[in-house]
Amino acid sequence: MRNYLTLINYFIFHLRHLNLPIFHFILRESIFDPNLQQALAWKRLEIGTHTQDDVTWIKHECAKRHHELKYGSGYNEAHNRAQTRFDGAPWENQF
Are the beta carbons of 79 and 64 closer than 8 angstroms? Predict the structure, then answer.
């Protein structure tokens, strides 16, 4: 389990992703910029006090990575596809 979390951590917080900015014609690489809820969710996952929403978020991130690898897509396309199955911000309505 620890190795799996290490791989997910690398994907979420360190890997550069291709994405399209507002103009939709210039590809650029960038690192994901997590928000506070995502950072706290990661901490809960590390120490074993995670919630079902945290698991939903991790499933979203895994689905996104799968789509990037399988289809060679950029971040935005992978995110939109993953969002159809797992909410990327399940805590959104809780704050």
Answer: yes
Q: How confident is the model at residue 4, as a pLDDT?
A: 65
* Burial class for 72, CB neighbours closer than 10 Å (0-12, 13-18, 19+): exposed
pLDDT in tens, 45-59: 889 999 999 999 989
Q: Which helix (H) or strand (E) holds 16?
A: strand 16-19
Return the bridge partners of 28, or none. 19
pLDDT at 31: 61
Q: What is the DSSP string of 54-67?
A: HHHHHHHHHHHHHH
Greater model confidence, 27 or 75: 75
State how far the Cα of 66 lies from the Cα of 77, in Å rounded to an integer: 12
Q: What tokens were used for 93?
A: 């309505």
Residue recorded with tokens 């897509």? 73
Give the torsion sign (CA, 25, 61, 87, 31): negative
